[in-house]
Amino acid sequence: xxxxxxxxxxxxxxxxxxxxxxxxxxxxxxxxxxxxxxxxxxxxxxxxxxxxxxxxxxxxxxxxxxxxxxxxxxxxxxxxxxxxxxxxxxxxxxxxxxxxxxxxxxxxxxxxxxxxxxxxxxxxxxxxxxxxxxxxxxxxxxxxxxxxxxxxxxxxxxxxxxxxxxxxxxxxxxxxxxxxxxxxxxxxxxxxxxxxxxxxxxxxxxxxxxxxxxxxxxxxxxxxxxxxxxxxxxxxxxxxxxxxxxxxx
Length: 249
Known about the structure:
The protein is an alpha/beta fold. About 40% of the residues lie in helices and about 20% in strands.
């Protein structure tokens, strides 16, 4: 199914963020203004086709009725398979003294969180991100925006079964670490050296029981304040940078 971005501001931001665009549809009775001119300039710069369509067509495609006479159809995100993630890990381990990081998201539902996590994962040199193909956020325009474009530079794999993916990573020499606020051990005391698969849980429920039982160990973040926990994107960043710190040099 095609994804559409509606409205002048969102389309300008999407083009600026590097969201892959298939085409831009402009209403046949839409008067050009500075924002429309900006969209047309960016479309020309990035080689995006612009077509004129009846406004009724945009009305039919619009979910919120806020297209403002212009909509952008995006290209589907190109997910990779598990073999690609393992190949990335093998390369990372050979270049970084055995260190490799794979991030597993156990039914994260917010596309913005997915983008923020992808931004940190790309920053620390993670080998890829594994997400479920159902009941979970997928890569969309929001993901591109919150990742500041980093989602285009890190491999993402959709899988039907998180537990099976964890077992495959274990077979390839990974230690699997779950981040959980209920864990007894703190992340500063955990050994994150080498090949690590980091599991982050759903925004509300955390890591599911079945997935947690499959992990080798769990860690919690140190806390002094009264707020129960960071959100999943912030917690992911802390965990990934602790992995990077332990594997520096």
